[in-house]
Specification:
- The structure is a single chain.
- The strands form three sheets. The protein has a four-stranded antiparallel beta sheet, with helices on one face.
- The protein starts with a strand and ends with a strand.
- With about 130 residues, it is mainly beta.
- The chain is built from two helices and eight strands.
- It is rod-shaped.
Length: about 130
């Protein structure tokens, strides 16, 4: 038996009995792969002052894990200060959420401004469409 998973030729030897029925089960399912979407870094805070930025990767990964590592979605109405804290406190300033990711061997970066109320200016979506 020859087959082509992802364009690569594969072969399997099948053993049959006298009636040409398989002696053993055959599984041609794909090997498990890593997550469809991987977060490289996620930073919330001041756009240029690293002292007022926070690594929020663990919290962002927790959101992503809820979708089976397929889609990261943070809505414009979400309270980021409740989710991540305020890395600029006590300074009252606009912030940026920046997420660097790897999706099926392609790197990307998305960023969205965070207003003074701690809300994104637009919904941030990365990954595969939801089913």
């Amino acid at each position: 038996l020859e087959y082509r998973p992802s364009g690569k030729l594969g072969r399997a030897r099948l053993e049959t009995d006298a009636d040409h029925l398989l002696l053993h089960g055959l599984d041609l399912s794909a090997r498990p792969t890593g997550p469809a979407l991987e977060i490289i870094s996620a930073v919330d805070g001041h756009p240029t002052d690293h002292a007022m930025q926070a690594d929020v990767r663990p919290a962002v990964e927790a959101i992503l894990a809820q979708t089976g590592w397929r889609t990261l979605e943070i809505g414009s109405g979400e309270d980021l200060e409740a989710m991540f804290g305020d890395p600029c406190y006590p300074h009252h300033t606009n912030k940026v959420l920046q997420v660097r990711y790897l999706q099926r061997e392609r790197h990307g970066t998305v960023h969205s401004e965070v207003d003074l109320a701690g809300k994104l200016d637009q919904t941030l979506v990365v990954g595969w469409p939801r089913d």
